[in-house]
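Hallway conversation turned thread

IA: we were arguing at lunch whether anyone had actually written out ATP phosphoribosyltransferase end to end. Turns out nobody had. So, for the record, here is the sequence (225 residues) and right after it the structure tokens. Reply here if something looks off.
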Amino acid sequence: MKQRDRLRIAAQKSGRLSEAGRDLMARSGLRFRESRDRLFCYGEVEPVDLLLVRDDDIPGLIAEGVCDLGIVGRNVLLEQQLEYVQRGEVAPFQELRRLGFGRCRLALAVPSEFVYQDPTSLAGCRIATSYPALLSDWLRKQDVQAEVVTLSGSVEIAPKLGKADLICDLVSTGATLAANQLREVATLLESEAVLAAPAELMLDDRQTIVDRLIKRLDGVLQVRD
Ligand code: ATP
Ligand code: ZN
């Protein structure tokens, strides 16, 4: 692959991680000139550019070598990591640092009439989720056989629509669950925004830029702790 001497960071264009992500980059000394389409932002102080994308695309952009770092939810990173593992491959990206914002959990939630005692209560149930790999992995570890119904959105209304018996979804305050008469019964994963990087070191000038950036980021994160 062509050697590059500038670093590229992928971050969410608009959503729950975009503001805190931009703030963290600013406090780590990064400044960007915004382009008209606001997808590619040129780094003005450091040789570090920013690509604004959908969060789900971030692990793939790192895997393809299009971006060198990414700010993404651990839930998205682990889901895509497990997709590789379930194919018998090694994921080409890894979690480098936890960033302390975007906290949420991947949890199971059941309708009020559902009797849940422990994971065995889920045997034979249909579970709606946008995280099929994480859910299947958890079910396998619990030794429970259940049907995973993959939905790309509006997971919380699946039980009411008769598409599933319960759901496995991201929860932060629990307000969405309450509004849909769902009760949280188990946590599969504690999540927050993380800094993602390739599984292997870069072989050109970019690794030096990464090392310098991580040092500054650690300073910023330490102040916050
Ligand atoms: P995109 O358009 O980039 O695909 P999205 O709708 O998939 O956006 P958001 O809803 O902005 O994504 O969520 C981004 C991340 O924020 C999640 O992957 C998760 O890590 C984190 N997050 C924190 N709290 C919540 C929550 N209550 N619900 C969903 N995600 C949350
Ligand atoms: Zn998304």
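OS: looked through it. DSSP finds seven helices and twelve strands in the chain.
IA: good, adding that to the notes. Residues 54-56 surround zinc ion (ligand 2) (CB under 6 Å).
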